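User: Hi! I'm working on a homework problem where we have to compare a predicted structure to a textbook description. Could you give me the structure for the chain below?
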Amino acid sequence: MSDRIRRWLAPLPRALRRMLVLLIGSTVLIAGLLMLVLPGPGILVIIVGLAILAIEFAWAEALLIQARERAGRLARKFRAENDRRG
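Assistant: Happy to help. Predicted structure tokens:
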């Protein structure tokens, strides 16, 4: 998916491309943060926002890697607890 988006953005000037990615990614990220206290899949939306930002920003890619690792650890923890119960 990321490659498809990058190909679509490639013809745009770099400054415009970075602004679009920043605007869209930040909006999705803020929505995810709000969903942590409001109803909705906050963590999933935060990861999607970071994935959008990671198209152009290295700091977002580093945060995305950390978020994926934490989500994976959390999923393994819940699976282990479910296996013990059932």
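For your comparison, note the following. Residues 2-85 form one domain. The chain has a mean pLDDT of 88. Good luck with the assignment!
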